[in-house]
């Protein structure tokens, strides 16, 4: 290591610490400081040595989230102090993770950085529920969209494309808008009884699922705690009530480098 | 471990062994036998202890690939011998991996099985090229499709949906059909000069990239060796010529359990 700072934009995966990549696990052990947000599970945060500095930049309510520009500045400042920074994000930094916005700020500031992909929530939910994202005869492809919208903005989605029967549709951050999305998909011709599911905190001990239909899933999932992912499509009919994966309790602690 | 056999359907990720999940790495160490196909990188196969039995079910040319039904039977047979089987697949078993077809055969045979997700090729290519799959203002979502088609079958894709400007399009197994896909997308209104790239063997020492346009990318990528992934969309304009990631040479060998 030189004294020059650097930033690793690292995906933490969906929550189960054993779904960290080997590289993410190593970088956590080498970091001087970890900048994380609310989608990183407590089980993963528990792996980080107590002596490692950690900075939270997002809490459960959006009111306490640091603006993106402030996060960008923070990363630049920490790297300029010569620190080895891990920017730890739930899922994958380049799928709804805004990792590329942070990378642009780092590039503009001349700071070395790289990406480490992570298992995204759709993959985590697929693995624990047994619902494939593609399956011969049911789905020839998969599509990830976000139900999140800026305050006062209308949902501007490609409705006709979303209503295609041969594509599994995964909606991230859709808790507030799923009812409207479902209604519009039905209006565009998708069957009201199309299989649909909601999965909260997939791959963690808090995982909860609602297996339902397009017309009912938003209402039935109303009690789930965030983060909630929706999966819509014939593939949901393959859902099997698999036992939740055992979380290892003897995962190797990350050693402070 | 009981003497009852089981099958883990495990994603090996895009090729870099450090992008294995901790769980995949552990299961490789515990397996009695590993059933793998051609998309698993040699770097990952090299991690497996020499004494562990390994069975290849797919070679570089489709002519030497074991039919899916024979793979299903093999997995059932091995598990019935009481073996702990890892079915190792490139990428993620539930994204173009046919993991759910194998799971159906295992369920029908009453054999315990589970899934371990893996980093899919799109995520690997995004991380090494710096091309995000979503990015505010450029892509509100991402879509994975396959360019593979059965012999003599026409490509039956959702062309209008694929031609949407706000979605990053990732085409798996498209080497043979990318020129036809690009021509059709242009006919449906996508600009001929839309940024598009091809990435071969992302995250491995064999990674090669062509950054081009929709109209040119298939021709320019003709010399790349499989597997080749295509990424189409404005996000490709963010491609930065990042150095390839250093492959660790001191990755912990998997110990035979």
Automatic annotation (TrEMBL), chains A, B:
<keyword id="KW-0949">S-adenosyl-L-methionine</keyword>
<dbReference type="GO" id="GO:0004851">
    <property type="term" value="F:uroporphyrin-III C-methyltransferase activity"/>
</dbReference>
<comment type="pathway">
    <text>Porphyrin-containing compound metabolism; siroheme biosynthesis; precorrin-2 from uroporphyrinogen III: step 1/1.</text>
</comment>
<feature type="domain" description="Tetrapyrrole methylase">
    <location>
        <begin position="7"/>
        <end position="217"/>
    </location>
</feature>
<dbReference type="GO" id="GO:0032259">
    <property type="term" value="P:methylation"/>
</dbReference>
<dbReference type="InterPro" id="IPR035996">
    <property type="entry name" value="4pyrrol_Methylase_sf"/>
</dbReference>
<keyword id="KW-0808">Transferase</keyword>
<dbReference type="InterPro" id="IPR000878">
    <property type="entry name" value="4pyrrol_Mease"/>
</dbReference>
<dbReference type="InterPro" id="IPR014776">
    <property type="entry name" value="4pyrrole_Mease_sub2"/>
</dbReference>
<dbReference type="Pfam" id="PF00590">
    <property type="entry name" value="TP_methylase"/>
</dbReference>
<dbReference type="InterPro" id="IPR006366">
    <property type="entry name" value="CobA/CysG_C"/>
</dbReference>
<dbReference type="InterPro" id="IPR050161">
    <property type="entry name" value="Siro_Cobalamin_biosynth"/>
</dbReference>
<keyword id="KW-0489">Methyltransferase</keyword>
<protein>
    <recommendedName>
        <fullName>uroporphyrinogen-III C-methyltransferase</fullName>
        <ecNumber>2.1.1.107</ecNumber>
    </recommendedName>
</protein>
<keyword id="KW-0627">Porphyrin biosynthesis</keyword>
<dbReference type="InterPro" id="IPR003043">
    <property type="entry name" value="Uropor_MeTrfase_CS"/>
</dbReference>
<comment type="similarity">
    <text>Belongs to the precorrin methyltransferase family.</text>
</comment>
<dbReference type="InterPro" id="IPR014777">
    <property type="entry name" value="4pyrrole_Mease_sub1"/>
</dbReference>
């Amino acid at each position: 290591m030189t004294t020059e700072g650097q930033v690793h934009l690292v995906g933490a995966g969906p929550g189960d610490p054993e779904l960290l990549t080997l590289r993410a696990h190593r970088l956590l052990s080498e970091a001087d400081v970890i900048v994380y947000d609310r989608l990183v599970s407590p089980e993963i945060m528990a792996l980080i040595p107590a002596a490692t500095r950690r900075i939270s930049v997002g809490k459960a309510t959006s009111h306490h989230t640091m603006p993106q520009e402030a996060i960008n500045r923070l990363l630049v400042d920490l790297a300029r102090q010569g620190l080895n920074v891990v920017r730890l994000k739930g899922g994958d930094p380049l799928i709804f993770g805004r990792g590329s916005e942070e990378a642009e700020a780092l590039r503009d500031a001349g700071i070395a950085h790289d990406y480490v992909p992570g298992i995204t929530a759709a993959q985590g939910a697929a693995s624990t529920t047994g619902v494939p994202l593609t399956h011969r005869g049911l789905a020839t492809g998969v599509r990830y969209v976000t139900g999140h919208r800026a305050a006062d903005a209308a949902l501007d989605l490609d409705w006709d494309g979303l209503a295609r029967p041969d594509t599994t549709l995964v909606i991230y951050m859709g808790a507030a808008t799923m009812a409207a999305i479902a209604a519009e998909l039905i209006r565009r011709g998708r069957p009201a009884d199309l299989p649909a599911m909601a999965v909260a905190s997939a791959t963690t001990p808090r995982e909860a699922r609602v297996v339902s239909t397009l017309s009912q899933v938003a209402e039935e999932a109303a009690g789930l705690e965030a983060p909630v992912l929706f999966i819509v499509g014939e593939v949901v009919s393959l859902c099997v009530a698999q036992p939740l994966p055992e979380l290892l309790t003897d995962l190797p602690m990350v050693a402070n480098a």
